[in-house]
Amino acid sequence: MLLALATCSSLLALQNLMVRGTWLSASWLLVVVVAAVVMGVRAVTRSWWAPSLAGLVVSVTILLIRYGATPGRVRVLPDAGSFHRTLATAGEGITVINQSLVPMQGVRSVELLVVTGALAVFLLADALAIGLGAPAASGLALATLWIPAVALGFPASGWALAWTAMFYLLLLALSAAPATAHADQGRRASVAIFSSLALIIATVVIGPAVASFPGWASMSLPSFGSGPVGPLQLSDDLDLRQSLGSRSGQVVMRYTVKPGTAPVDPLTPSPAPSASGDAPLGTVSARTVGPLRAFTLASFDGSSWQRTDALEPASWDPATLLTSDPRLFGTAPDAERGTLADVAVDVGALRERRLPISTFPRTVVVDGAWQYDGARDEVIGRRGTYNGMPYSMQVEIPKLTKDELASARVGDPSDSGTTLELPKTSHSDDVARKARELTADAKTPYQRAMALQTFFHATSNFTYDTHVAPSRSDDAVWDFLQSTHGYCVQFATSMTIMARTLGIPARVAVGFLPGEPDDNGTYVVTGKQSHAWPELYFANYGWVRFEPTPASQTGPLPAWSDPFSGANSPENPQDENVPAASPGASQAPAPVTPRSNAAAQQASTAWLPVGITVGIVLVVASLALILVRRRAGLLPDLTPERAWLRARRRLAKRGLVWSDSDTPRTAVASVNSQLMTRTGAELSGESAAALVALARAVETERYAREDAQTDAAELATWVDALVEGAEGLLSDRRRRDAVPSAPRNGS
């Protein structure tokens, strides 16, 4: 029980690395369930490995049911594909961890890894502390949950350390006490608790003082390969047949975000947010502003995207909005239509002729020869960006929801059909047929778009992988549908082409995910945050972003494309100020009530099969325990040593004890002496013979050259006879009354 509590406390070390979600409660619940199973098995067997094996089997079963179930189906037992689906989800979670920023989203795939790690830590700590009798070594297992926080430099709460330390110290104190120390058990427990608390308090109080001395807090982890390798430039000829290489870790831009109420001169330096990364007033942040798009791609030949120069770029009024929505273009930002955010950007190691701007309507103020391409919604320059270049935007973040898009019609982007063109390949008909199959039940353009996104976003269908398999045909989209492995370019391209086959104008956007705050609250974006996503055109709404890529980089889906109404969205305003490597968080928060209900329904459905399975396991385990208890006296593995321990425990319940230093022969004399003192008589007859025979069997097992062949049933009979004889003497009231009371108070 202490090990389970220590494991749950150690999980608190991950709180500063991940956004609040179900990962912590799920881990706690499953650790407690597995701990109960391990305790139940250990209660009926003396094998050191059987409880760990039982816990491992139950853990794997629950993981396969919880994370390997077929989407939309309830199963209480794993099926043939559960392992592969769980493995695919775990692989996606590894990619999420490798490519996300802190604090990362606790999406389902990451939750699987956290739960698996928690169960592994508990089982290892239990095997070390109880199975192998090395409780001190269990601390090494518990420490593994602290490695991510230490390595990434995000310290955990002091309470996490305090609770973990207390449970670990109590474990050491409990294991150090002899099993027969019943007389002073209360004193030992009190000393252990107060000593543990005193040590923890001393550490918390003295630790900061010691760390303030020079040298104690100056260590840092070495950094390799982070030197500059030249300015970064986004590729505008994306080839779906190429694997994704190592992306640059250089800083490409820094920016601040604050609430905006009216058009201002964004080139004027604005006050930075607090060091914690919170935006002023808690209303806007990098999350709400969303990804910064550099350019879009519309021409696809079946394997790669090509880009042509803008036809009619023009200047613009810095005080009015630039947007693909004709209703808003050229108007002033209006707080009645949405939330306003002022964004001030400083370019880093980025050499790009297209200015990274928000996907939402925005004003843009920038020095130099820059022009606006209205057809592509891009800001294009002759010279391009350079290190230290400032520019700024006032972004109008719309309150767009899926209910508004539900009845939207397909719009006309006025691009002469460019965003509806389809490549002519040997599998173009197959791709179109697949799109029609996936959207057969959809009635509106938005429902068709959602059906496509859901298909690609499901980890049971596709796996995020930066390595692309060799092409097998002249159609890269068809190859991706067959291999089911790819990165954001493959996902974005496939949804774009499928949407076009359904008559929905679509294009691919390329840019950067939101950054993470530094110590001054300025958001930092590196080359690792480069990303691609599809945009579909709807009447009266313009280009709308969707996110088909599984949650490897993207985090939660946009509010308007979340089928579960934002089950992964933050539940309080302060979480909105946490920047995440996610374009899915760029929308304004959706209404709370429908999102909460959908989230609760999804969570209850996901845990239903796990609850049913756990209930079945508990019922079967209870029946097994009853049968085992009834046959406990005839266990085939009963040895003289185990029979001696069983007799010792049963006699101790009646107050007849001896110390570990007593030999079997002195223990015989001690039992008879205690009985004589309390009842005026010693064991006699069958019970006395059973005590002597059991003691001799133990001596033979311990010291003889050859093992004595003692029948387990006979050992069990000796134990029962011995205990029954002792209980008979102790329960005889006439014998107890005949024994004089011990003198008290010196009288």
Question: Any descriptors?
Answer:
alpha+beta; 17 strands; 11% strand; 747 residues; 21 helices; elongated; single chain
Describe the structure concisely.
The chain contains 21 helices and 17 strands. With 747 residues, it is an alpha+beta fold. The strands form five sheets. A six-stranded antiparallel sheet has the order 7-10-5-1-15-14. Strands 6-2-13-16-17 form a five-stranded antiparallel sheet. A two-stranded antiparallel ribbon has the order 3-4.
How would you sum up this structure, described in words?
With 747 residues, this protein is an alpha+beta fold. Helices cover 42% and strands 11% of the residues. It has 21 helices and 17 strands. It has helices spanning 2-10, 23-42, 50-67, 82-99, 108-131, 138-143, 147-152, 158-176, 185-211, 286-289, 402-405, 428-438, 445-457, 476-483, 488-501, 592-630, 640-652, 664-679, 685-703, 712-731, 733-738; strands at 251-259, 292-297, 299-300, 305-306, 338-347, 357-358, 362-366, 370-373, 378-381, 390-398, 463-464, 485-486, 506-512, 516-517, 523-526, 530-538, 542-545. Strand 3 (299-300) and strand 4 form a beta hairpin. Helix 3 (50-67) runs antiparallel to helix 5, helix 12 crosses helix 15 (488-501) and helix 19 (685-703) packs across helix 20. The longest helix is centred in the C-terminal third of the chain and has 39 residues, at 592-630. The two termini are 47 Å apart. Mean pLDDT is 79; it is low at 179-183, 214-229, 264-282, 566-605 and 742-747.
